[in-house]
Amino acid sequence: MENRTPEFLEMNPLHTIPVLEDDRGYITDSHAILSYLVDQYGADHQHLYPKDPFKRAMVDQRLHFDSGVLYNRFKTLMKNYSTYAERFYW
Ligand SMILES: N[C@@H](CCC(=O)N[C@@H](CS)C(=O)NCC(=O)O)C(=O)O
Q: Which GO molecular function terms does the record list (predicted)?
């Protein structure tokens, strides 16, 4: 699998996708990638990841809900019901 090659593991030892390569290195979590892209390149789209601490916390709350709750439940569901998932994820 492409995400287990030495080259990929050099970028991300957790062997997960997505991985973003930018000038200063690799970012290996989708939520971190999203907030980074808006901060770094989205000057005209700051409403997507606001600077205001409370508004930003509302976005962070949903990102953490995704990685902490939703994705785990999705994985459990896929594990139980999909042969595709068995081939690619575990
Ligand atoms: N928290 C990580 C999770 C990434 C993740 O688990 N990606 C899955 C695909 S959705 C993956 O790469 N699985 C392959 C593996 O673990 O080898 C993120 O949001 O980027």
A: glutathione transferase activity
Check pocket membership of 70 for ligand 1, CB cut-off 6 A: no
26-38 pLDDT, tens digit per residue, is: 999 999 999 999 9
CB burial of residue 12 (10 Å; 0-12, 13-18, 19+)? middle
Q: Whose CA is nearest to atom 11 of ligand 1?
A: 16
- Lowest-confidence segment of 28-42, 47-61, 67-81 by average pLDDT: 67-81
pTM of the predicted protein model: 0.87
CA of 18 relative to ligand 1 center, distance in Å: 7
